[in-house]
Amino acid sequence: MTGKFPLPEATIYSRAVRFGEQSDTHDLGIYNIWTTEPGVTGNMVFEYAFADGGSFDAVRAWRIGSDFNMPLRAEYVASRPQALATSFFSVDQPNVVIVDVKSLTDNVIHGEVSSAPLDPPVNKAFVVRLQEFAGKRSKVVVQLPRKVSAASVVSITEDRKVADVDSISPLTVTINPYQTLTIRVELDQ
After folding, report:
1. 113 close to 154: Cβ distance less than 8 angstroms
2. CA-based diameter of the chain, in Å?
3. Strands 138-143 and 90-91, how do they pair?
4. pLDDT tens digits for range 116-166
5. What are the start-end ranges of the H helices in 28-179?
6. Which of 34, 78, 132, 180 is the most exposed place for a label (fewest CB within 10 A)?
């Protein structure tokens, strides 16, 4: 077989064509996957969204995908809201999204044992994670519900400071193309 096939036999076998409902497994060989979830019967339903606006717009594409994957669910409320849209945390650049906001807490009280619930201290520290998705370096102003007393850029594991923010009032950071930026923020009470 050396004259006809320039590649080793193992490579030839690995290039075998499989149908969309087939998969290779180490223990069973070729396996037919009839549903996306084992035990669920019926047809697989796929939904697609297409849009055309001439040239590619990364911000518009991200918004279409986000709206398609995470649609806003309408719910009836008894009273009219003060504002139709508002947020505690927001950014001023359309190519940057807030992917996570969480409080930075250490709820473990060391050295104390009690059957009564302990009142934890009010948390003033937050972690805000930003992501740039359009490939454009940007200076971003992050709007927060209170005045910022301290802020720094921390590692993705939030264990060490890696840089200073551009400004605290208003909270301003520079984010590079496709970067995920983690910011530790302390708010005034």
Report:
1. no
2. 81
3. antiparallel
4. 556 656 678 899 999 999 999 999 999 988 899 999 999 988 889 999 999
5. 58-69
6. 78
96: how many CB neighbours lie within 10 A of its CB?
24
φ/ψ of 161, rounded to 5, equals -75, 135
HSE of 31, CA atoms in CB hemisphere, 13 A: 10
- 185, with CB counted inside 10 A (0-12, 13-18, 19+), is buried
Task: Indicate the CATH number for domain 90-107+123-187.
Answer: 2.60.40.1360
Residues 93, 140 contacting (CB under 8 angstroms) = yes
Mean model confidence pLDDT for the chain: 77
Identify the pLDDT of residue 20: 60
Say if pTM beats, i.e. exceeds, 0.70: no
Q: How far apart are CA 72 and CA 119, in angstroms?
A: 36
- Residue 163 and residue 176: Cα distance in Å, rounded? 13
Q: Which two tokens stand for residue 110?
A: 């060391």
Distance of CA 99 to the CA centre of its chain: 4
- Spatial distance between the Cα atoms of 187 and 189, rounded to a whole number of angstroms: 6
Parts of the chain belonging to CATH 2.60.40.1360: 90-107+123-187
Q: Residue 51's closest CA among 38, 60, 42, 41?
A: 60
For residues 142 and 136, the answer to whether their CB atoms sit within 8 Å is no
